[in-house]
Amino acid sequence: MRRGPVLASLAAAVLLASGGTWVLYGSSWLRVEKVTATGTDVLTPEQVLAAAAVPVGSPLVSVDTDEIESRVRGRLPRIDSVDAVRAWPHGIGLKVTERKPVLLIKKDANFVEVDASGVRFDTVPKAPAGVPVLELNAGGSPSARRFDEERLLHEAVLVAGSLPAPIAKETVQVKVGSYDSIVLELTGGRSVRWGSGEQSDAKGRALTALLKAAPKAGHFDVSVPTAPAAAGS
Fold first, then answer.
1. How far is Cα of residue 193 from the mean position of the Cα atoms in its chain?
2. Which one-letter DSSP state was computed for residue 27?
3. Is 173 helix (H, G, I), strand (E, B) or coil?
4. How far is residue 215's CA from residue 233's CA, in Å, rounded to a whole number?
5. Terminal-to-terminal C-alpha distance of the chain
6. Could you tell me where this protein is found in the cell (predicted)?
7. How far is CA 22 from CA 32, 54, 57, 64, 65, in A?
8. Does the structure show a pLDDT above 60 at 185?
9. I need a labelling partner for 104 at 20 to 30 A (CA). Which of 88, 120, 135, 146 fits?
């Protein structure tokens, strides 16, 4: 057996592996030099970068992208999702998606933002435009013992999150008197009897049709979406 060529091949393989490892971990060629953040709306890219705390100067291959994503979500509750990717040879890119409020809860002089999943993710001093405020007044409801405030909040979020965009922009308030007594207050002093959060998608479609058919009406009822009604002016 000719050992010389075999040993030479093995030695070459070891050298190549060692050289590759050195390039990835030991050299300055493939190290983190630039970190970018995209997808922000309310937040700034600088806030995302600060929360990510990517170790600039470290070998790109050794950066734990899962840890970076976890750090961003933990430090910035407004972030719904974040994707950290390596941008060879010297970058890390952060693509974020912010939570969008569908409902506001008044708290002293501030407003708590709630997303479509029911997550309360931030408190702001000024109500964002086009997001309705919750009015919860179910203390005297016979169903109050069965449906606590968290369950009623869930129903309100379900309704607010299912509203077609044009209607959501015109919804000023979501009033909850009980599980099956939800009323929307729209701009122009108009009101909508919604009922419960059940069949909210169908109710949204029914209300859209009603608003087009009776644009001057002041009161709408979509509690039974197959038999919607409009009245007043």
1. 28
2. S
3. strand
4. 9
5. 101
6. Cell membrane; Membrane
7. 15, 22, 15, 19, 21
8. yes
9. 146
pTM metric for this prediction: 0.80
Whether the CB-CB separation of 135 and 111 falls below 8 Å is answered with no
Q: Take residue 90 and report the two structure tokens written for it.
A: 């010297």
Question: Which among 97, 17, 23, 100 has a CA at the least distance from the CA of 62?
Answer: 23
Q: Give me the residues paired with residue 105 across strands.
A: 112, 134
- Long-range CB pairs of 58-62, under 8 A, 24+ apart, other chains included: 58/31, 58/32, 59/24, 59/25, 59/26, 59/30, 59/31, 59/32, 60/24, 60/30, 60/31, 60/32, 60/86, 60/88, 60/89, 60/90, 60/91, 60/92, 61/24, 61/25, 61/30, 61/86, 62/25
Pairing of β 181-186 and β 91-98? unpaired
**What are 107's two structure tokens?**
């708290």
157 CB neighbour count, 10 Å cutoff = 22
